[in-house]
Amino acid sequence: MIAEMPGQLHRPRKVRSIFASKACRKSVMFGHPLSEFKMKQIIENMGKIEQPWNCPHGRPTIRHLCTVNLG
């Protein structure tokens, strides 16, 4: 089965859940102040992953800070 899908790694659901929980516990929490360097580092790292807009549990990781009026 793994040979049929080269480049893909399949993990049991329980292991994936453990990794997701560890990732979320290590994340930056709302209201936690960050330096400009750390903010830039986070944005650069998010640009390197496939789905940066959600955490492993499906919660949003990006918030819109302003509304753009195009009209």
Low-confidence blocks of residues: none
Estimate the strand proportion: under 5%
The best one-word shape is extended
How far apart lie the N and C ends?
Answer: 52 Å
Radius of gyration, taken over Cα atoms and rounded to an integer in Å: 16 Å
Number of strands: 0
How would you describe the overall organization of this protein?
The mean pLDDT is 79. 0% of the residues are buried. The chain has a domain at 31-71. The chain has helices spanning 13-25, 36-46. It is mostly helical and 71 residues long. The chain has two helices and no strands.
SSE topology:
Blueprint: H1 13-25, H2 36-46
GO molecular function: ATP hydrolysis activity; ATP-dependent DNA damage sensor activity
InterPro entries: MutL/Mlh/Pms-like, MutL_C_dimsub, MutL_C_sf
GO biological process, one term: mismatch repair
Any descriptors?
71 residues; 34% helix
Question: Could you give a quick summary of the protein structure above?
Answer:
InterPro entries: MutL/Mlh/Pms-like, MutL_C_dimsub, MutL_C_sf. By secondary structure, this protein is mainly alpha-helical.
